[in-house]
Structure formats: C-alpha cells, structure tokens
Design brief:
- The chain is of the alpha+beta class.
- The chain is 47% helix and 9% strand.
- The chain contains 23 helices and 9 strands.
- A hairpin with a 4-residue loop joins strand 1 and strand 2.
- It is globular, with a radius of gyration of 23 Å.
Length: 494
Amino acid sequence: MQTGMHTDTERCARAVRSKDARFDGWFFTAVLTTRIYCRPSCPVVPPKPENMTFLPSAAACQQAGFRACKRCRPDTSPGSPEWNQRADLTARAMRLIADGVVDREGVPGLAARLGYSTRQVERQLLAELGAGPLALARAQRAQTARLLIETTPLPMAEVAFAAGFSSIRAFNDTVREVYALSPSELRTRAPKQRLAGTAPGALSLRLPFRTPLNPDNLFGHLAATAVPGVEEWRGGAYRRTLRLPYGHGTVALTPHSDHIACRLTLSDLRDLTVAISRCRRLLDLDADPAAIDDQLRADALLAPLVDKAPGRRVPRTVDEAEFAVRAVLGQQVSTAAARTHAARLVTAHGDTVDDPEGGLTRLFPSAAALAAVDPETLAMPRTRRTTFTTLVSHLADGSLNLGVECDWAETRARLLALPGFGPWTADVIAMRALGDPDAFLPTDLGIRRAAGELGLPSTPAALTARAAAWRPWRAYAVQYLWATDSHPINFLPV
C-alpha cells in the first residue's frame, strides 16, 4: 500500500498556509471546529494547526461528517495526479469509478473488472483513501448533481436521475449532507448567467487543471490528426463526437489560461460523469506539471525546452480502442494519409449523429463494426490489413482489453504479441490510449532527430539509457522533444 501525501501533516500544513493551488486534489483540509473541508488553496484565513486534519479524498471527508466549503468548492478540485501516474489496484479502481462503473455495474462489477474480490477492493480503497468504492462513487454523484443544479434548468427529479441517484430522497439527503444546502438553495445561489440559454441535454462547464498548461502541442496534435466527421477545429475549439455507455454526445473544448471551457451535448444526461472524465483524460488535465517539469529540468539538455514552454501535456484519447485502430492505420504513412484511411472507415461504418452546430456527422466505428468489415475492401498493404483485422477481432471478442482498468505492462506485452505490432505502435498506444506517463518512443524518427540536434544520444539503445533519469515521466519528455519540430501537431491552430 502506498502512503498518501495527507499523512505528511507538516508538508500539508505548509501548503495550506501558503495557499498553494498545486496541491489541490492531492489532499483535503478538514477543520475540526467548523466541520468543513477545504482545498489547500482556500482563500479564507487558515485555521490553527491543531484544528486541522488532512484526508486523502473528498469522499473520506464526507464520510467523516465534514461538509464542503462554500468558498473554495473543494469537490471541484482537479483530480489527484496519482491515479494517472500509477497502475496499481487503487489507481485502476479510481479510474473506473471516475468512468462511472460503480453506478452502472455496482461494486461487484468494479471488482470483476479489476480481477479481485469485492472485499479486497473495498479494503484497499478504504486503507488508502479513507473511503470505499460506494462512498467514492457517492461523492462523484454529488459533484455531478451540483454541476447540473447550477448549470442547467433541469427539474430536480431529472437532475437526480442524470447524476446517478436511485431515488429523489437519496439525492436530496446527499446534497444536504455534502453541501449543507438543499438542491433548490444551491440553484438559487448559482450565478444566473450560467443558466441562460442552456437547453436540456446541453451544458457548459469549466474543467480545472494545475497550471501551467501549454495548449500548443495538446490541441495542435488533436487538430492536426482530426478525422473528418468525427473531429474538427472550429472557432478556437476542438470538437468531436463521443460514444458513451447510454448514448452519444458531442463536445467542444476551448483552452483558457486557467481552465478548459467544455460545452457538452448529450443524448442521455446519465453520461455526463463519464463524458467529463473522458474529456479530462483526453487533455491530461489531472497531471502535475510542477513535478514533471522539475524532474525533466534536471537534464541540462532538456531544461531549455522545458523552460521555453513549460506545462506540456500528453494528448490522449476518449476511446482507447479507437486510438489503437488509428495507430495501426498510421503505421509508416503520413498524418494526412492516416486521416484519409480513418475517414474512409468512418464514412462507411460509423454511426450517424446529429450535431446542433454542424460539422460533426459520425461516431468512430465500434470494434464490432470494424471486425465485420471485408478485409478485401481495405485500401492498405496486405501485412497491415492482417494487423488491422487481428486487432479489431481481439478488441471485439474481448480478448484484448484497453480500458482504463488494464495493467499497462501486461497490455503492452499483449499488443507486442499481435502480428505487425512493434515497439513503436505498442508504446504510442501505451502513451496516448492507456495513459502510461512513462511510455517512451526511442525508435521514433522525430524523437531521434530532436535528440541528435540537442546533443542527446540518437540511437534507440543509448537514448533509452539516457532517458532512465527522466522516469517516470518519459512520455512528457517525448512531447518536449517532438515540439522541436515544425510539424503542425506542435502548434495551436489559428
């Protein structure tokens, strides 16, 4: 079991006294005298040290009888970066809970996906986070409910249903317990302009992150590789369609200096929590750029790249299977050619959707739909055709799982066992689909060229040896090295 930051009371107290926003989401401050919990950066006067205790999650605070601060809104903190950088049981469970698995499948479903017993999962989460899976999912439902109450005019009964509550009574009781306000009081306190013009099924919200965030390569990569019909760059926003558990949706994501503006249109509001979670993963918003950049700066040859444009994120995906398919389509071809191959598949096999703003027309085809495609209709070399058909058949029958719960090392080994999968393809999937922050691409031509220009070793073996000092953040080093090139993926679209 790992020991969380909340156990280092002296460090936590220093962060609270300095109101250091970098630690928001790492731990929560529970005030014993007021029974309120806050984020470390709460603007109020810090309580006396003897009146503070530190807990690892909002759910643990709520379970211990503390209410969320109305001033700093700790329940809206960025998520802990630990769940993105770790691949152990707790981290995998937290990624699944964020993806709404407990609400859809219960704790037994969560445990089954992880390959452990229900008791093992509950014991591990309680030991490390101070709350079990039901309490963690309940805290997430409360946050979703608050978001819907404050940003939509939906009737409260629909809010309760969309947030995942089984009854109106459970919804009312939870909101009162967590926020010390009734649902109607929460809505009354919400800024009125946020409700204006919002239609049922559509809402606008702010996705927080830890600063700095450099949007150039993040949005540049997504825009430059966008598949027509599924993705587009329009009006300063990256837009795409989403395949979700209860239906589908579209999202527009716009970068700002202190948040990402997110505009969602969903066919079923029960998908809200999942959609937010997947957008956060897509943009790597729970990363800790201070920790990452500090370690990469320790290499004198990387330091100038980090200092020039700190806060680079890894552009990820909202659909792991989709990304794996696109990685195969992009083997040994240009970005434009990969987009063309993907667009053909989308046009022929993607489900159609209605986009209120126009421009987006289809969902990326499911693995099952692609597994049914006649291989002879695929305009690609025979060896890559075999790679493609083998991949989609394994994804469709469930023998290959790329979900948020998968073990990174085991999944990478499974990918390498497939025909046509070399280290580059397996590692780019590990980096961008699985979310492994330490995935590395020493054979990538762009990485080797950048390394040579910087004075780093340029052969794969020597570069891998040098990159050992960058662990566990080698995927971020890849972004800094890629950014030395003039390719469109490195620039925010005009």
